[in-house]
Amino acid sequence: MESRIPHHSTDCVSACIRIYDAAVALRLQGEEHRSAEESADPARTWRAGAARFFAVGEVRWATAATVLFVIGAVMHLVGTPGWVWWGLYLACYAAGGWGPGWAGVRALAERRLDVDLLMVAAAIGAAAIGQVFDGALLIVIFATSGALEAYATQRTADSVRGLLHLAPDTATRLAADGSEHVVGAEQLVVGDVILVRPGERVGADGRVLEGAGEVDQATITGESLPVDKAPGDEVFAGTLNGTGALRVRVERPAGETVVARIVAMVQQASATKARTQLFIEKIEQRYSVAMVAATVTVFAVPLAFGADATSSLLRAMTFMIVASPCAVVLATMPPLLAAIANAGRHGVLVKSAVVMEHLGTSTRVAFDKTGTLTEGHPHLTTVRVLPGAAVTGEELLALAAAAEQPSQHPLARAVVDAAHQAGLPLQRQREFGSVPGHGVRARVGDRWVEVGSAARLLAEEDHGRAAVTALEADGQTTAVVRLDGRNAGILGLADRRRPDASHAVAGITALTGIAPVLLTGDNPHAAARLATEVGITDVHAGLLPQDKVEAVNALQRGGQNVLLVGDGVNDAPALAAAHVGMAMGRAGSDLALQTADAVIAGDELTAVPAVIALSRRARRIVVANLAIAATFITVLVAWDLLGHLPLPLGVAGHEGSTIIVGLNGLRLLRPAAWHRAALTRRGAPQ
Length: 686
Hints:
Blueprint: H1 9-27, H2 36-40, H3 42-54, H4 57-77, H5 82-109, H6 115-128, H7 132-166, E1 170-174, E2 180-184, E3 193-196, E4 206-210, E5 213-216, H8 218-221, E6 227-229, E7 234-235, E8 240-241, E9 246-250, H9 258-271, H10 275-304, H11 309-322, H12 326-330, H13 333-345, E10 348-350, H14 353-360, E11 364-367, H15 369-373, E12 374-385, H16 393-404, H17 410-421, E13 429-435, E14 439-444, E15 447-452, H18 454-457, H19 465-473, E16 477-483, E17 486-497, H20 501-512, E18 517-519, H21 524-534, E19 538-540, H22 545-557, E20 562-566, H23 572-577, E21 580-584, H24 590-595, E22 598-600, H25 607-642, H26 647-666, H27 671-681
Parallel strand pairs: 11-18, 11-20, 18-19, 20-21, 21-22
Antiparallel strand pairs: 1-2, 1-3, 3-9, 4-7, 4-9, 5-6, 5-8, 10-22, 12-17, 13-14, 14-15, 15-16, 16-17
């Protein structure tokens, strides 16, 4: 049997593991745990679950201890000879107690006093004074707790491996001559082109070169419906291709895929402890030593004044059990890890319990602009025909888009996309020419079409200058369209704000009592335009990366705990400097995702106020748990010292308080907890 983590932090860690296991299992939609075959055969599902459960050694030992205890209790009740039920109880001691006892001895060898060892010692002491039933009951309870922990640990390991297995082991790599070669997914390098046939899982993170189809990427983003993919769209390793064949250029090696990063986050979150938890563990070590000293005193003092040894030892053993700080230690981590699991289920990956704790203490939220509050891609917003041009707006857009078709410039793609969305037919262009930084020129039909910057194509005295100035003052980027050497129109392009940006800002303002701040490297006009649209008044524009860091530090020097939401490489230093850094999962750069403390996997901004509200509720539950645990310990200790507390009742009270605080924390796993946080983000009372 594997030794358990000392200082009874094992129960906290086991709760963490069980919670995160549940979160990971929920992310594995459609995988082996929810296969159609098992759903159609409940008996098979039950047998598979039982097989996994009893495959864990600790579960088998705990089951043996429980069976021996039950048989012993029956033999005891029916009046069989004492040696029969005593033997069964002692066998129960051996089956269920040797693991915790050995773990406690190993901890003692390292000069640490383990509560597990104290529990075993209490059980042995109970047997020494003839209370073998009470001691066996304590062993069964403790063995069962250890078995659940070991099973949860195994499930977590299996789930993490399951995440890794989402990405296929092999992929079809295309050579330069078009030939196909099946290779291991780990052999793919950036720049390789792979073929993903219908029904196959994508072998690597990359971008579609050819083909179209729908891809089920629920395991990565949580989206309930398949997402249409076309050339230029990003795809993720482990997602399931639908009906179309895709040629994908690999953009990340196997160890850096989104799946691999999620696995790393899960492992990191499972291994970390909140600051409050670490403080409790330090207190617990001293508390355990003090409890041993107090137990000796409770035994020795009455004995010195003439009490009989049996009653004194029984009282001392009961005292040691009820005074153990198990519930106090368990009070902190389950609520925080339950909140992490629930947030992960709704698209927010929080990397540790420390981060979840810090989210609730955030007092000011700062947003980056491009890719965070906006989609990060330009869109055509304005088509303005200049006086005297003999074309309509649709004709102007169609001619400009036809000329821009061969260009790969982001603004050119935005113009072409707008024409396609408007359903405009595009003529073939000829004699295409492009000058970087200036624009393009091509013959479309019988007309020469030029699309370029206002600085190049528009003179100061031209009547289109006023339109350009007005659009740029509104935060738009402009392009001039010239037909046959004459200025014909102005195109305005801008980054489109995310649909939920205004709701997110309103929710954060209601939650924190102060509107967020906008920190952006974009120009002041574009920043002001977006800020007005979403309801932000505090705007800092034109910032370089170091300027963003200074802005965050200035807010924090003023007493604010800053939660920064960003996506780009230029945001990474500020994400590291902030009280909590949160990155956009889809739009975020690799550096931002690695630096951030949390990731919004689905890029839903309304998740920001929701996860803050969820964290604050978790903190309130931690406080409530500590109060519950302290109350139980105080009442039970007082009962034992001032009256007579039966050992079985002491065991029940001690373990009952542990179960109560554990279950209280696990309430945050319920979907209702997130829904309540979502209501809070809209300004409803907490």
